């Protein structure tokens, strides 16, 4: 039961992190998940969790690296393979010795072999973190390929170096020849085994498909089972690197790219969807588990009176500096020595190339493999004495992990900002894709009862796609047009506030007063909600004003509810009906549009906004006004209009969900997602008026 509760806590933390990352986009999802993992340990139902490194590698790292290898751009990987292997092997070994000698020099209590073990554990970068952090910054295709390739191959060098360092620390004996042979055997043997298995798996899947034996269920289950089987056999039977065997198999498998026909396409789509969900879940669980280990590690070392806490913090900073400086020097040297693919000459180190070296440095944070290796440090050495400073070494490794993750999270966006990723035509093209997927989802939800409402909403989405296609083809700056649209929303707000003030001056208890107040309050509530969303996306520094706006919205809704309850208590029938309110809202919308159109005509005589943009927005408002005037008797269609409003709310949720899925799948960047969400909030007002 305790294990079941623990699993529920971990999964719950992953689910919560997916929501929190939407509201704090400047904090990468791995950091959010680490924090949630630490918080989970404070829950009353939490039971202490011991991280079994072997089981951890089998259950989490193996399938994640298999998926990463299968989806990586193979052509880009081949172009950068030399650089990736240089980092995965050369830099990992250099880090081992640099950290070992420096740590032993500044803290002689740590044996040299144990210091080497820490350096070996800090060699591998975290493939999961690399993938997550690549969405935070504008990495070039080459940078992303190098970092991915490094994270796929550097586990073997780190693991082998760690194992021999620990063996030397425990027994006091170390053989360089034996270590080199073991490393070569694990590295080459793992790759060879993975390539052979990959060829066999391709043949098996393609044969099953050609014979008609493949089903969606069998294909998905066999593919999910594959990385676990390869890892276990490589480690326990072949005694080679299971990680590299899994990576090599993932690189060579291509059965999902062969075959034609609707059944094959449907199977590939289902498999891709299953892997997408599994990937996000496993990624999240990895970092949540990392967060769960940190409090235990901290308590064990921080509370030890024999070791100064200030010394521990200083050691973490020193080791972090060594790791980062070694990586920067290695990457810079690699860039300086690498010849240009076209001219075959070495290029000078310009400012841009130094920045690229910094990006590659901070783009390789340490993570869960480092911590899982440190937990395998034995408690005693060969003489039976306690392993020297075991808890402190684990604490130092945890500190370095957090330092590298924090630096990657906050420095990468500064060194390689995402601003150049958001061009006008690019955002419009992505928006068209989002709208089409939204229409597809709405179409799948059509029933006999909601058919008319959904078709009307789909029509509004179709018109949005048509307008965006014109923008993609024309030299129109959507950001300038967007600013004018937002300004028009503020004009609507000011007009409605003035109408509300006039309505409150009418005699109490009259139908006209109740209708005006109710209509204006409802329209203002929707309008202010849209403006708040836009403000939240455009600026993260206006938190106080956003909170105040939300409080005012809650207060307004409570006032409306109180007025309705009072009407129920004071009379058997309400003063105004929903049909009357809907009818008056439509009339008020038409009057508001007329007011905005007049303001736009005034703006055409000024220089603040382009005449072309004013004219385009006037046409939008004219079309929306015409759609409202063509509606049947509103007083007789309140139920139909309410159904349309419900469908529209669903469509907005679908649209935002599509954007989130595209972000999670890496199809768009965070900055692009931010722009797309802002477009949803801006355009929903227009969609509302047309429906």
From TrEMBL:
Residue span(s) of domain Cation/H+ exchanger transmembrane: 13-413
Keywords in alphabetical order: Cell membrane, Ion transport, Membrane, Sodium, Sodium transport, Transmembrane, Transmembrane helix, Transport
Membrane-topology descriptor: Multi-pass membrane protein
GO biological process: regulation of intracellular pH; sodium ion import across plasma membrane
GO cellular component labels: plasma membrane
An annotated Gene Ontology molecular function: potassium:proton antiporter activity
Highest taxon of source: Bacteria
Localization per record: Cell membrane
Segments crossing the lipid bilayer: 6-24, 84-107, 156-177, 183-204, 267-291, 311-333, 354-381, 393-415
Pfam family, one: Na_H_Exchanger
InterPro entries: Cation/H_exchanger_CPA1 (IPR018422), Cation/H_exchanger_TM (IPR006153)
Gene3D superfamilies in UniProt: 6.10.140.1330
Name of the protein in question: CPA1 family monovalent cation:proton (H ) antiporter-1
Organism per entry: Bifidobacterium tsurumiense
């Amino acid at each position: 039961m305790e294990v079941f509760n623990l699993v529920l806590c971990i999964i719950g933390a992953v689910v919560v992190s997916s929501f929190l990352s939407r509201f704090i986009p400047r904090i990468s999802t791995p950091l959010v998940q680490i924090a949630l993992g630490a918080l989970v340990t404070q829950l009353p139902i939490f039971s202490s969790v011991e991280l079994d490194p072997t089981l951890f590698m089998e259950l989490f790292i193996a399938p994640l690296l298999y998926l990463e290898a299968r989806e990586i751009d193979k052509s880009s990987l081949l172009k950068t393979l030399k650089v990736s292997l240089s980092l995965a092997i050369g830099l990992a070994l250099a880090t081992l010795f640099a950290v070992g000698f420096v740590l032993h020099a500044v803290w002689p209590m740590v044996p040299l072999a144990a210091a080497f073990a820490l350096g070996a554990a800090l060699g591998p970068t975290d493939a999961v973190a690399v993938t997550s952090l690549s969405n935070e910054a504008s990495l070039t295709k080459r940078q992303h390929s190098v970092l991915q390739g490094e994270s796929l191959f550097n586990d073997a060098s780190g693991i082998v170096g760690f194992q021999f360092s620990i063996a030397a620390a425990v027994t006091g004996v170390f053989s360089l020849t034996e270590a080199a042979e073991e490393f070569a055997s694990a590295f080459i043997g793992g790759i060879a085994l993975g390539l052979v298995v990959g060829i066999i798996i391709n043949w098996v899947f393609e044969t099953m498909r050609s014979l008609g034996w493949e089903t969606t269920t069998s294909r998905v289950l066999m593919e999910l089972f594959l990385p676990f089987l390869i890892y276990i056999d490589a480690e326990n039977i072949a005694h080679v690197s299971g990680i590299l065997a899994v990576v090599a198999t993932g690189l060579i498998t291509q059965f999902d790219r062969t075959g034609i026909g609707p059944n094959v396409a449907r199977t590939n789509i289902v498999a891709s969807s299953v892997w997408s969900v599994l990937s996000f879940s496993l990624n999240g669980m990895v970092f949540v588990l990392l967060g769960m280990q940190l409090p235990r590690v901290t308590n064990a070392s921080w509370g030890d009176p024999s070791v100064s806490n200030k010394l521990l913090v200083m050691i973490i900073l020193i080791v972090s500096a060594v790791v980062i400086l070694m990586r920067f020097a290695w990457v810079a040297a690699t860039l300086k020595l690498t010849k240009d693919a076209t001219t075959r000459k070495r290029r000078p180190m310009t400012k841009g190339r130094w920045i690229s070296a910094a990006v590659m440095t901070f783009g390789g944070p340490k993570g869960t493999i480092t911590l899982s290796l440190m937990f395998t440090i034995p408690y005693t050495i060969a003489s039976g004495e306690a392993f020297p400073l075991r808890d402190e070494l684990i604490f130092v490794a945890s500190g370095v992990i957090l330092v590298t993750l924090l630096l990657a999270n906050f420095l990468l966006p500064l060194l390689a900002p995402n601003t150049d990723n958001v061009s006008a035509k690019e955002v419009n093209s992505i928006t068209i894709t989002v709208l089409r997927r939204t229409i597809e989802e709405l179409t799948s939800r059509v029933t006999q009862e909601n058919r008319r409402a959904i078709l009307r909403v789909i029509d509004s989405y179709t018109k949005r796609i048509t307008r965006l296609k014109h923008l993609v083809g024309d030299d129109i700056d959507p950001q300038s047009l967007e600013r004018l649209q937002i300004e028009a929303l503020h004009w609507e707000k000011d007009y409605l506030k003035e109408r509300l003030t006039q309505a409150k001056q009418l005699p109490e208890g009259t139908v006209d007063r109740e209708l005006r107040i109710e209509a204006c309050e409802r329209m203002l509530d929707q309008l202010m909600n849209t403006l708040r969303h836009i403000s939240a996306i455009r600026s993260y520094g206006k938190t106080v004003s956003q909170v105040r706006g939300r409080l005012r919205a809650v207060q307004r809704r409570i006032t409306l509810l109180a007025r309705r309850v009072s009407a129920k208590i004071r009379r058997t029938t309400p003063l105004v009906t929903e049909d009357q309110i809907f009818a008056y809202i439509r009339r008020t919308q038409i009057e508001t549009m007329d007011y905005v159109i007049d303001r736009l005509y005034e703006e055409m005589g000024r220089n603040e906004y382009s005449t072309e943009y004013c004219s385009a927005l006037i046409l939008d408002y004219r079309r929306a006004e015409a759609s409202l005037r063509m509606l049947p008797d509103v007083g007789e269609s309140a139920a139909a209009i309410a159904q349309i409003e419900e469908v529209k709310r669903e469509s907005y949720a679908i649209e935002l969900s599509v954007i989130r899925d595209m972000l999670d799948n890496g199809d768009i960047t965070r900055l692009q997602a931010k722009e797309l969400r802002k477009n949803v909030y801006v355009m929903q007002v227009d969609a509302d008026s047309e429906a």
